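Whiteboard transcription, Tuesday session. T.W. wrote the structure tokens on the left side:
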């Protein structure tokens, strides 16, 4: 594949790696969120226990939701890389749109199309910021000094 990113694993392993990373991110973030929410909604004196119970019950669910999104996104990205034989930002944008649309498919065509557009736009923003940051912080080539004037 032309322009392949050799710093990442091959596609089947990328899917598993991304699903695990997404699960960890969702479980930690969701666990933290639900710990705070459970602690705030518990009576005084039971706040820590209420936070732990809420974290234990909801954290893994949020992690699972993140894992589903991450594994679907990585699967579609690998499919688009294979079909298009290119690695560019359009693969991520298309993967975000397909993932958003499929995850909302149970809500009907309208919900699926709105979520697909939202997923594509969100990934386009993420890819655009990534490109802008890499250009902004790229190593600039050293400036060449002008040639000395000829003495005649």
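and on the right, the sequence the group agreed on:
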């Amino acid at each position: 594949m032309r322009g392949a990113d050799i710093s990442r694993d091959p596609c089947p392993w990328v899917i598993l790696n991304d699903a695990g990373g997404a699960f960890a991110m969702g479980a930690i973030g969701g666990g933290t969120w639900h710990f705070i929410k459970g602690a705030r909604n518990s009576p005084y004196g039971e706040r820590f226990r209420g936070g732990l119970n809420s974290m234990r019950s909801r954290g893994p669910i949020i992690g699972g939701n993140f894992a589903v999104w991450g594994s679907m996104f990585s699967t579609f990205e690998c499919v688009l890389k294979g079909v298009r034989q290119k690695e560019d930002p359009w693969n991520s944008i298309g993967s975000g749109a397909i993932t958003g649309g499929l995850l909302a498919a149970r809500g009907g065509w309208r919900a699926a199309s709105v979520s697909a557009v939202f997923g594509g736009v969100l990934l386009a923003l993420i890819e655009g910021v990534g490109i802008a940051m890499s250009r902004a912080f790229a190593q600039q080539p050293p400036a060449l000094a002008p040639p000395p004037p000829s003495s005649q």
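Someone added at the bottom: Residues 47-84 form the longest helix (38 residues).
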